[in-house]
TrEMBL record:
Pfam families: Aminotran_1_2 (PF00155). It comes from Roseicyclus marinus. GO terms for molecular function: hydrolase activity, acting on glycosyl bonds; pyridoxal phosphate binding; transaminase activity. Belongs to the class-I pyridoxal-phosphate-dependent aminotransferase family. Homodimer. GO terms for biological process: alpha-amino acid metabolic process. The keyword Cell cycle does not apply. This is Aminotransferase. Its cofactor is pyridoxal 5'-phosphate. CDD domains: AAT_like (cd00609).
Length: 395
């Protein structure tokens, strides 16, 4: 049978990296590949209690359908979290999503026709591209340095490329590099977006997980024209399995996204929204986040210290101020994909994500993303030592 697939499906393809990472799921392999939070830090008992409580509530409301926008009390709580973080926000501005991933999909569907341009950081979050690809965009990747996306290159892109519809950025502790967009560049990015009338998609799943340095204002808080769509998530500060995230956007954009939400999945799980809401009411989220920050800061320090001791001198790694990842750049000519397949997995029994797949256009080979949140401190030391020894053996 020859099934005719829609044209957009041509870009909906499995990723070679997925196959390689599947090998890393073997428990005898120390994987720095995933982006998972540490499950030993999940507030399981508290979540179990709030889940039971919302189910037992009279009227069965938590098991009923709910508005597409999300449960009103949760929208109010999210708005309060946004305000406490310095971003003006009312419950009416909030759309509850099934994870922030859903917001990436909605933003592209709302704004991007085939052939339109999406500006991304280079490298960028692979899940962003996976969400955008069915809209058949052309990517304009903008290189980064230690202060995030380079504004001189962004300016050039906006001046020379027609049909730029969206600038996608992860301003804090970016996935995959761990880099944070500086304050000066936040202002400049909005200046440029305003001048060229482009929407900014601000993706902030790691924002709360800051170890050092000052919290910088969200792009949304600096937005004077209602052109920033802000995405937030409970995945990293609570648990990813709840699949609860949110978008904050100007009324016209938010309303369109709510209609996509209705078409897509009617609403986020009422049970999960109700449990999240009750958790926020009964427990101290800030105290929990403080615990996460301390634990991930320690793990990052263990990983970077191990890399300094075990990796060859010519490997450069970023030192993130928060989040879950560091980014390694190996010597010119090094092929991180081949090394993982031929040496890291079979010999050192260690997995990472080769960096090539994070580059939207040119697949650069000599980079890799390392996650430090998922493994214990002892396994981080053990895995980095094994990988370092293998790198030196095969130098
Ligand atoms: N954006 C970025 C940059 C991410 O790293 C992730 C998850 N790894 C997401 C969005 C999606 O997160 P969620 O859907 O769980 O909120």
């Amino acid at each position: 049978m020859a099934i005719h697939l829609a044209r957009r499906m041509a870009r909906v393809e499995p990723n070679a990296i997925g196959e390689l990472l599947a090998l890393g799921a073997d428990p005898s392999i120390i994987s720095f590949g995933g982006g998972y939070p540490d499950p030993t830090l999940f507030p399981a008992e508290a979540l179990g209690q709030v889940m039971a409580e919302v189910i037992a509530a009279p009227g069965g409301q938590s098991m009923q359908y709910a508005p597409s926008d999300g449960l009103p009390e949760l929208r109010e709580q999210v708005a309060a979290l946004m305000r406490a973080d310095g971003t003006p926000c009312n419950a009416a501005d909030v759309l509850i999503l099934q994870g922030s991933q859903q917001g990436l999909d909605f933003a592209a569907r709302m704004l991007v026709d085939p052939g339109d341009v999406i500006v991304t950081e280079d490298p960028t979050f692979l899940g962003g591209r996976i969400a955008f690809d069915p809209c058949e965009p052309v990517y304009a990747p903008v290189p980064m340095d230690d202060d995030g996306m380079r504004m001189d290159v962004l300016e050039h892109v906006l001046k020379t490329r027609p049909k730029v519809r969206m600038i996608y950025t992860i301003p804090e502790f970016q996935n995959p590099t761990g880099v944070t967009l500086s304050l000066e560049r936040r202002h400049r990015l909005l200046e440029l977006a305003n001048a060229h009338d482009v929407v900014v998609l601000e993706d902030t799943p790691y924002r709360q997980i800051r170890f050092t340095g000052e919290t910088l204002p969200t792009l949304k808080s600096l937005d004077t024209e209602g052109r920033v769509i802000h995405l937030g998530s409970f995945s990293k500060v609570l648990v990813p399995g709840l699949r609860v995230g949110w978008a904050v956007a100007a009324p016209a954009l938010r309303a369109k996204m709510a209609l996509l939400k209705l078409a897509n999945d009617t609403q986020t799980s009422t049970l999960n929204m109700a449990a999240t809401s009750l958790f926020l009411k009964k427990h101290d989220l800030d105290a929990h986040v403080a615990t996460l920050r301390a634990a991930y800061a320690r793990k990052k320090a263990v990983m970077l210290d191990a890399m300094r001791r075990h990796f060859p001198q010519d490997v450069a790694v970023t030192d993130p101020e928060g989040g879950l990842f560091t980014w390694a750049t190996f010597r010119d000519g090094f092929d991180a994909t081949a090394f993982m397949r031929d040496v890291a997995l079979p010999e050192a029994r260690v997995a990472y994500v080769p960096g090539g797949s994070f580059h939207p256009v040119t697949e650069r080979a000599n980079t890799a993303r390392f996650n430090y949140s998922a493994q214990s401190e002892a396994r981080i030391e053990e895995g980095i030592a094994a990988l370092g020894a293998a790198l030196k053996r095969h130098a």
